[in-house]
Specification:
Tetrahydropterin Synthase, Chain A, 45% helix, 3-stranded antiparallel sheet, 368 residues
């Protein structure tokens, strides 16, 4: 623009005198031009033809037309006028520096990338995978040549399947139907595979989870599915999901599967609860019977062991053992009977109605 400004002052210097490039002006005033007389014949121009007229109201290429041409180009490249008609707009050099500064700032922002400790940056060069940036500060080519997409690899995501609003009915190995609700926890292990190998990662994980759960439930019974084998089912489903997703090269790691509900269908749930309660009562009665039988068995074994010990002593001294056993037996029999034994010198024991006598005798009152 400074060149154009210099060109604007050129016509004034060229036409500052009374002589033009085609000779003296027609109105005179110069040293060589006559002051009076009729106008002379037209003077041919340097490129042939007649000299263009420069008088007022003529359309020749004079100083005014050149300045107008320069001003139009100046406006086109960002020039303008102030309130007083003078040039007051920003110069072209300033605009150029502003544009360059904006471009430099944009390149700096799209070249330097800050990757968090839980993130990885996937770099694409012209839309094609190039590399993966670790955590920290990294530099790439500016956009749109290279683009960086940040992926959080530490976040644990979860997917709910078979919520209370919908039934997820599955067929068990013993031809029963079960309604299962479960949760799948997963995270991103390989960012580039996660971004470019799966079109819809969450939908893919959901479908793989449902397929794996149906496969495992079809191999167990209804009692196992709703009973104490839930942990085994969860581990088998997690293993099957991971194996399938690895074949897809999904870049996903399955962190766990948790079964939240395992019930029969709602239409038969009440009847099934009654059946389950009856089975539990039957199992409880069976356990009580087994416990009683075990108790009797232990008692019998104890008695048999005691008898064996007595028999060993009997073999050593039969008479003494026989008498001791007689005394012990009589002691157990007569322990709760009212009795009085009188031994007489003649060996005759007269009969005495001792029980009647004891009942007729008043009890002695304690001393006051």
């Amino acid at each position: 623009m400074s060149i154009l400004s210099g060109l604007g002052s050129l016509p004034s210097r060229l036409f500052s005198d009374n002589k033009g490039p085609w000779g003296p002006k027609a109105d005179g005033g110069g040293d060589d031009a006559p002051s009076t007389g009729p106008p002379s014949d037209p003077i041919p121009g340097p490129w042939g033809g007649e000299r263009p007229s420069s008088g007022p109201g003529q359309g020749g290429f004079g100083q005014a037309n050149l300045e107008a041409f320069i001003e139009r180009n100046r406006r086109r490249f960002g020039g303008g006028f102030g309130d007083d008609g003078s040039s007051g707009g920003p110069s072209g050099s300033k605009i150029l520096w502003v544009v360059l500064a904006v471009l430099a700032l944009g390149m700096l922002l799209t070249t330097m990338h800050r990757i968090g400790p839980e993130e990885r940056g996937v770099v694409t060069l012209f839309g094609r995978y190039s590399s993966t940036l670790p955590s920290g500060i990294s530099f790439t080519l500016p956009a749109p040549i290279a683009r960086v997409q940040k992926v959080n690899v530490a976040q644990i995501r979860d997917i709910e399947l078979g919520s209370a609003a919908e039934e997820t009915l599955m067929l068990t190995g013993d031809q029963n139907i079960i309604d299962i609700a479960y949760q799948v926890r997963w995270s991103i292990r390989n960012p580039e595979q996660y971004l470019f190998e799966l079109r819809t990662p969450e939908d893919t994980i959901r479908q793989v989870a449902e397929s794996s759960m149906r496969q495992v439930v079809a191999q167990v019974s209804l009692q196992d599915a709703i009973g104490n084998k839930r942990g085994e089912i969860e581990a088998r489903v997690q293993e099957e999901m991971q194996r399938t997703l690895d074949r897809y090269q999904s870049g996903v790691s399955i962190r766990g599967v948790a079964i939240k509900q395992a019930d029969p269908p709602g239409a038969v749930n009440d009847a099934f609860k009654d059946v389950t309660a009856a089975q539990q009562d039957s199992e409880s009665a069976r356990n009580n019977a087994n416990a009683y039988a075990l108790q009797l068995r232990q008692i019998a074994q104890g008695e048999a062991t005691a008898f064996d010990k007595v028999y060993v002593q009997y073999k050593l001294s039969p008479e003494v053992t026989r008498r001791r056993m007689y005394y012990e037996t009589m002691e157990r029999v007569l322990r709760g009977v009212d009795k009085t034994i009188i031994e007489t010198p003649g060996g005759v024991t007269p009969y005495l109605p001792l029980p009647q006598i004891q009942r007729s005798t008043p009890e002695r009152q304690p001393a006051q």
